[in-house]
Write a structure and sequence with these properties.
Blueprint (H helix, E strand, L loop, with lengths): L1 E2 L5 E7 L8 H9 L3 H6 L3 E7 L1 H5 L4
Length: 61
């Protein structure tokens, strides 16, 4: 994850085989769900880019 200057906005690239066969919305939900508590207190925004290992290796970024 890459924090922006204010420390409340983050950019993240997440690569997981669990994303295979999932829509982009489902992939983002999978990443965001465990972070709910952080959004309630410390995290304001998260920009996500999600890939399967195959997509990442093929350069689909």
């Amino acid at each position: 994850m890459n924090p922006q200057k204010d420390g409340l906005h983050f950019d993240a690239i997440v690569i997981s085989s669990l994303f295979s066969g999932k829509s982009l919305v489902e992939q983002h939900q999978m990443v965001m769900a465990p972070l709910k508590e952080l959004f309630d207190s410390k995290l304001h925004a998260l920009s996500l880019k999600t890939y399967t290992p195959e997509e990442w290796n093929e350069g689909k970024r």
